[in-house]
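REQUEST ID: PR-0412
SUBMITTED BY: lab tech R.K.
PRIORITY: routine
TASK: structure prediction, single protein chain
INPUT:
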Amino acid sequence: MRILFVVAMLAIASASRPLESSAPAQPDERRTFYPNGQPYEVRHFLNGREEGLQQAWTEDGTLYINYEMRNGRRYGFINARPCLPVPEGR
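STATUS: complete
OUTPUT:
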């Protein structure tokens, strides 16, 4: 009977604690660079998870990662190339 009482008290105590998600959001931006000083990537995080615009460049400055994370879903492309060349003037 005493064990049942202790288990019930622990359940009540844990239920009364606030959830971790009730803490304020912690945004974070992380930037990395090539040794020559050119930007390598810019990543945005919210509470330790990717959230917002994510970009990365080659050493010559060509954007090769460009997507946005929203609620755990990725919108955009990684290493995308057009299937057909685009004619000049379009």
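NOTES: The CA atoms of residues 82 and 89 lie 16 Å apart.
REVIEWED BY: pending
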